[in-house]
Amino acid sequence: MSVIGVPLRYTHMSDGRPILYLGEKVRRTLQKAGAIVFPICPVQDVDYIDTKGNMFPELTEEEKRVISKNLDMCDGLFFPGGGKFTPYDRYLLELAIEKKIPVLGVCLGMQMMGCYDEEVKLEENESNILHHQGSDDLSLAHEVVIDKNSRLYQIIGEEKIMVNSFHKRHSMDNHVYRTVARSLDGQVEALEYPGKTFNLGVQWHPEISYDFDDNSRKLIDTFLEEVSVVSQRKMAIYDN
Q: Which of 4, 32, 90, 100 is the most buried (most CB within 10 A)?
C-alpha cells in the first residue's frame, strides 16, 4: 500500500487549548481509496495557531532536515484545507516538487500552491456564486469550467462539472502553477504544476464528495494510481 503524507492543521479546542488535527474525511477517504495515511507534524517551536503567516521565523537547516525526513517516508503528499498555511507547508511542497513526489492539494492546499514561493495573494470572495456552502457535505454548490488542454481534463473527461465549495477567500493567478479551471465568476478553481509528475490543486473538496460524486473519485483514484508508481519504484530499489 502507498503512504500518503498529510500535513496536520491547527485549531483550538472548546476550552481554548491548541491542538493539531487531521480531518476525518481526509483520513477515511484516503484509506478507502487504498492508502496508508501518514500525518506530518509542523516542526517549529512556535504557536502555529495564533502566529500570523508573515510572523513565522525562517526555517532552520535542522528543521528543513526533519521535514525532508518526514517526506522521505511518503509516496505522495495530500495538502488538506484549513485556516492557514505556514513555512513548513511551503517547504514540504518545494521538496515534493524537487523529489518528484505526486501532490494533490484541496482548498487551502491549492491556495498555498498558488503562492508557495512568493508573497501570499488571496482575496475575499465577492460573488453571487455559492463559494461557501456551510455544513452541507452532501451536495455540490456551483459549476466549474476545465481547460481541455490540462491533466485535470484528462482525468475528469468533462469540460463543465459541478463541485462543492467551502472557502471564503480565493487564489490569484501565479507565475509557477498554471490555472486550469475557473468558476463562472472567473475565480481560480484548479492549478497544475508543469511536468510529468502529478502535482495538482483544486479549490473544492473531492475527499468530502468521494462517496457520491464520480468526478471526485476519478481525481483521488488517479492521484493514488500515480502515487502507487512511486511506491513500486521504492520497493524495487529496496528489493535490489
A: 4
pLDDT digits (tens, 9 = 90+) for 53-64: 778 999 999 999
> Vertex 121, ends 159 and 178: CA angle to 5°?
35
The string of pLDDT tens digits covering residues 74-131 is 999 999 998 888 899 999 999 999 999 999 999 999 999 988 776 666 656 676 776 7
Per-residue DSSP letter, 104: E
CATH of domain 2-239: 3.40.50.880
Query: E strands within the chain?
Result: 2-7, 9-12, 18-21, 35-40, 76-79, 103-106, 122-124, 142-146, 160-163, 169-171, 178-183, 188-192, 199-202
What is the C-alpha to C-alpha distance for residues 196 and 85, in angstroms, rounded to an integer? 26
The one-letter amino acid code at 129 reads I
Instruction: Give Cβ neighbours of residue 1 (< 8 Å, ≥ 6 apart).
Output: 34, 35, 36, 231
**Does the predicted model carry a pTM greater than 0.90?**
yes
| Residue labelled with grid coordinates 507534524 | 41
Please list, residue by residue across 75-110, b when 16 or more beta carbons sit within 10 angstroms of its beta carbon and e when fewer do.
bbbbbbbbebbbbbbbbbbebbbeeebbbbbbbbbb
**188-231: pLDDT as tens digits:** 999 999 999 999 999 999 999 999 999 999 999 999 999 998 77
